[in-house]
Amino acid sequence: MPKYNKLVRDYIPQIIEQSGSKYSVKTLGNEEYIIELKKKMHEEIAEYEEAKNDQDAVEELADLLELVYAAAESHGTSVEHLERVRMTKAEKRGAFKDKVFLIEVEDE
């Protein structure tokens, strides 16, 4: 039986069971959950970097967004509050829409 030892989406155990396979899982505590969310984000970022087309990239971005929402909740905030924080930062410092790439800054 292959070992995965990674965080998976909530319905994965049922999907495995429906395929006729056996599995084992455990429910994580909050601290371990946050650690595993971070690991899963790295995994999904790598998959996004490897995406060969827009459709695959969007699929990976959706996975990342789901993880961001889960992480926000695990840190005691809502998706709505997270969005407000994002908007405030965008108003103060801008977003990433203009594709600005900083080369260097001359020190005085």
UniProtKB/TrEMBL annotation:
It holds the Pfam family PRA-PH. It comes from the Bacteria. Residues 34-68 form a coiled coil. InterPro entries: MSMEG_1276-like_NTP-PPase_dom, PRib-ATP_PPHydrolase-like. Keywords: Coiled coil. This is Phosphoribosyl-ATP pyrophosphohydrolase. It comes from Jeotgalibacillus campisalis. The lineage of its organism: Bacteria, Bacillati, Bacillota, Bacilli, Bacillales.
